[in-house]
Every structure is written in C-alpha cells, then in structure tokens.
C-alpha cells in the first residue's frame, strides 16, 4: 500500500519539476521517518535532485575538488526503466 502523496508542480518557464512528499497514513514507516527528520531538523527541504547528462563525470570532478559525498551513485530500476541517482 502506498502511504505517501506526491504533489508535482511543473514550472515550464524554469524547466523544473518540484515534487512535495506528504505522508497520509499515521502509522506507516515513512510517516515515522518523516517525523524523526522534522523533529531533528525542523520544516524544510530534505532532498534536491537535478537532471544531468553525465552523472559519473560530474561526481568524479566534484570528488577531485574535495566535495564530501554523502551517498555514492546508485541505480534504481522498475518496469519503466533504470535511473542513476
């Protein structure tokens, strides 16, 4: 069962999509995770994503410049296709 609702706001002028997650099932695991994050950090943006042409090269250059990577690149796959994150 899906326990979150995602609002998609497409702003064509800026060529971006804004997705806002909201949990609507009180006892779901995702609700607890969202609650812990809000308790620790307050209201705000948790994740930001950008669509890029060559993620591997961008990450390599960032690391060479001293960027601290919190999570390395991973791939998610479903019936629609694959996506590098």
Whole-number mean pLDDT: 78
Count of individual helical segments: 2
Class from helix and strand fractions: alpha+beta
Q: Biggest β-sheet, characterized?
A: 2 strands, antiparallel
Helix and strand sequence: EEHHEE
Please give the domain count.
Answer: 2
Instruction: Work out the number of β strands.
Output: 4
In whole angstroms, how far apart are the ends? 24 Å
| Share of helix, binned | 25-40%
Q: Compute the CA-based radius of gyration.
A: 16 Å
Write the layout of secondary structure elements.
Blueprint (H helix, E strand, L loop, with lengths): L3 E8 L4 E8 L5 H13 L13 H10 L10 E4 L2 E4 L1
Antiparallel strand pairs: 1-2, 3-4
Task: Please describe what this structure looks like.
It is a single chain. The protein has helices at residues 29-41, 55-64; strands at residues 4-11, 16-23, 75-78, 81-84. With 85 residues, the chain is of the alpha+beta class. The chain folds into 2 domains: 1-49, no CATH class; 53-85, no CATH class. Strand 1 (4-11) and strand 2 form a beta hairpin. The two termini are 24 Å apart. It is 27% helix and 28% strand. The protein has 2 helices and 4 strands. The strands form 2 sheets. Strands 1-2 form a two-stranded antiparallel sheet.
């Amino acid at each position: 069962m899906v326990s979150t609702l995602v609002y998609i706001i497409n702003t064509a002028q800026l060529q971006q999509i804004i997705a806002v997650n909201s949990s609507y099932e009180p006892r779901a695991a995702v609700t607890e995770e969202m609650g812990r994050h809000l308790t620790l950090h307050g209201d705000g943006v948790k994740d930001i994503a950008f669509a890029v042409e060559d993620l591997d090269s961008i990450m390599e250059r960032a690391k060479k410049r001293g960027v601290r990577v919190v999570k390395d690149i991973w791939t998610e796959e479903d019936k629609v296709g694959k996506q590098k994150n």
